[in-house]
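Researcher: Before we compare anything, I want clean individual predictions. No alignment, no superposition, just each chain on its own. First chain goes here; please echo the sequence and then give the structure tokens.
Model: Echoing the first chain and its structure:
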Amino acid sequence: MIPCECSMVESVGENVIALKEGDLVIPTYLGECGECENCRSGKTNLCLEHPLTLNGLMLDGTSRMSIRGQRLYHLFSCSTWAGYMVVNANYLVKIDSRIALSEASFLSCGFSTGYGAAWKEAKVEKGSSVAVLGLGAVGLGVCMVKEYDMYIEFKMLQT
């Protein structure tokens, strides 16, 4: 999953059971059903049930947004630059409500990009040496991989 920004749920549709008004969520442009072969594999998050769409529409081919009667399109599947967004619940990750919105936003795009890059793409493993250039959200995400394997040597370089 590749998150974008932290938001608060304002309302939910009738079939949504895992979220409620007031929940803090991070929208993602990769949805997860948690049940398909890909979601269960632990190796990919390209869900077979909730795919990445690049047409700017919801999975059912519609848009839930308009302005002055003209259809608006979603950016990927979550439209995180909009003041309000309508998104399928499978494209949201609920986070702890005790986290302040300003701090939760830190968990979104930058942190998860660094964490995912080190864990899933670079496949950092025991005995690896890793140079981290900068300790912003991306750099700190890379460093958190160390929490799961204390044998990784990190060199943190603040630029």
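Researcher: Okay. Second chain, same rules.
Model: Second chain and its structure:
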Amino acid sequence: MIKIGRNDACPCGSGKKYKKCCLNKIQENVLLNVEDQQDFNELLPKLFEYSKQFDGELQAIYQRYSSTYEKLKTGDSKAFSKLLFHWLLFNKPLTEDDKSILEKFVEEHSDNYSETVSTTLNKWLELTPQILSVLKVEKGGVVLIDWLTESIHYPEHTELTSQLTEDDLLVGYLYPTPTGVALGSDAVLIPDSLRHHVVVEVDRLFEEFHEGVKDPYFFVEHFHAFLSILAHVSIVDLPSVGFEKIPEQAFAVIDELYNNIELEDYSYDLILLAMEKWYHFASEQAPRIQKVGTYAAAIEYWIANHQHQWTKQTFKQLSEKYGVSPSTISARFKELNSVFSDVTERVPHG
């Protein structure tokens, strides 16, 4: 974590010392008349109302990615669902002309507002979910740093920011306002107990699906997978397995699995669960792995045939995909299914 001293260079890049620049940064006050203030306060509710005409497209994808949240505690489930819904509104192209619902709303309604509110609304087009860490807590508010881009943010002081402490890690949106930016009420604080596990899995996500490049555009495009990581580490409590106990070929099986699936194929938390259960199986059973594709195909079959998964696979389809026989996949699947299904529902065979 970067620490900023009073005499250090200001992280905003001005070249000035921190104490002479953003330490005492005060957002320029923009006086809003009553009508503008009301219009701004109603932007999000009106966007929600506008989105109802896209319910068909929204609900199909929302149900696809939110089914995992049913296993969470009520408060966590609501928080994750809220973030997912906002991502679908702000960032997911869902309309016939491949635009987000927010983009369509701005196109159709921006001219209905004053210049101040319209300018703010257009800035919302740059809304993206962010992993944010609290860099510093000052008397007048907090300094946040984006975990991926290392950009510095000074959100307006609110009841939410007043509850943050240095080094807190959270995920959410920074909403442009007429006076600056505000940390949204949809922000989710990642508990310290889960922080290391979350960071490890996010690093794995980039490594396996984006060549290790921590690209914010990839993060936004696949934000549902990041939420699945949060859900997974909040739910699953499998005992840890030391890497030294896992046969080398077992890692090759997971590499083969990752090489043959896409992030859009399945709920990512189920992929993580399958990986962890495979490592436990491999460390305890020490299976003889002659061809990694046989077990990789069996694991994918186990994933694909779970409830709420939208990509279904047969043994024949997987045999063509992995270059192994359907009967071999079936045999390996039966071997795995008897062990894998101690936490989740047993996957039917056939």
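Researcher: What stands out in the second chain?
Model: The chain has 14 helices and seven strands. Additionally, The radius of gyration is 23 Å.
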